[in-house]
Amino acid sequence: MNDVNSNREMTFWDHLEALRHMLFRVVAVIAVLMIAVFFSKDFIFGSVIFSPSSSDFCLYRWLCNLGESLNMPEFCPDTFKIEIININLAAQFFTHMSTSFWLGLILAFPYFLYEMWRFVCPALYKKEKRYIRIAFGFGCILFFTGVLLGYFVIFPLTLKFLGTYQVTETVVNQISLNSYISTFTSLILMMGIVFEIPMVALVLSKLGVIRRPFLRKYRKYAVICSLILSAVITPSGDAFTMLMVALPLVLLYEFSILVVKK
Q1: Mind listing the pLDDT tens digit for each residue in 46-70?
Q2: N or C end: fewer C-beta atoms under 10 angstroms in the chain?
Q3: DSSP secondary structure, the chain, as one string
Q4: What pLDDT is stored for residue 139 in this prediction?
Q5: Which residues 6+ apart lie within 8 Å of 21 measured at CB?
Q6: Cα–Cα distance between 133 and 114 in angstroms, integer?
Q7: How far apart (Å, rounded) are the C-alpha atoms in residues 112 and 238?
Q8: What are 169-203's pLDDT values in tens digits?
Q9: Hey, CA dihedral for 92, 96, 98, 102, is it positive or negative?
Q10: pTM, full prediction
């Protein structure tokens, strides 16, 4: 690999120093975004994180409107609001801190991809640079598509199903703050990460590692792997959430088949 600022060949220690500077910049950006999220507590928690806990959330209203237009009242269940409780003295403060970190990490993802591109760029040929640049931009779009899908669809449906499910009316659901936040952050972040599958497939295809017949050959194994991966991703471990996560994974694999070379 050549130094971007000179024509000399970079040594191992030069690469290590470049990696150190890259990681420092990424951590600094995450820290800044974490602080911004931390001081936006009322909006982040009140208007974003806890918004799916009541029937006023946009997905539930959309399902109600769909049910009315199709004359299917089951699409519009009764009004609900999931009560979230805290049982540990310091849990709210530490939850505020950890949530700020994870949201800062999510928001910093485009910058992380940009730094990754800068780091690997000197080692690539001109044609490879063009392909990888497109792939990284593609990956950024896919990541936030996964995050948005997790927030607006996967998490609300999971919360609505599990938060209102009762084996008997005598057992009242009381969802703890830690349980709610861990499920929220895990699903949102992991949905963003798994949506990178087509980007990884595109990069490997451009580098000549995989081809379309290879992915088609192992399609049935991909379905099994999607079910296993969804079981790992979902913190609750219930079948409903697993299937909600596994379906996008299978669709992503099919999309990967379309974007790689024949």
Answers
A1: 999 999 988 889 888 888 888 778 7
A2: C
A3: -B-TTSSSBP-HHHHHHHHHHHHHHHHHHHHHHHHHHHTTHIIIIIIIITGGGBTTSHHHHHHHHHHHHTT-GGGS----B--EE--STTHHHHHHHHHHHHHHHHHTHHHHHHHHHHHHGGGS-HHHHHHHHHHHHHHHHHHHHHHHHIIIIIHHHHHHHHHH--SSTTS---EEHHHHHHHHHHHHHHHHHHTTHHHHHHHHHHTTS--HHHHHHTHHHHHHHHHHHHHHH-SS--HHHHHHHHHHHHHHHHHHHHHS--
A4: 84
A5: none
A6: 9
A7: 33
A8: 888 888 899 989 998 998 898 889 888 888 888 87
A9: positive
A10: 0.81
Q: What is the pLDDT of residues 205-246, one digit of tens each?
A: 877 778 888 888 888 888 888 888 777 766 555 676 677 778
What the block records as the tokens of 115 is: 């730094």
Q: Which of 161, 141, 144, 129 is nearest to 60 (CA)?
A: 161
Cα 137 to Cα 165, 182, 195, 199: the distances in Å are 41, 29, 13, 9
Q: Measure CA 17 to chain center.
A: 30
Locate 251 and state its tokens.
């669709």
Q: Where are the domains of the chain?
A: 12-259
Task: Please name the residue that has the structure tokens 């990884």.
Answer: 200
Q: 6 falls in which pLDDT band (50, 70, 90)?
A: very low
CA–CA gap between residue 218 and residue 224 (Å, rounded): 10
Residue 222's nearest CA partner among 211, 214, 233, 232 is 214
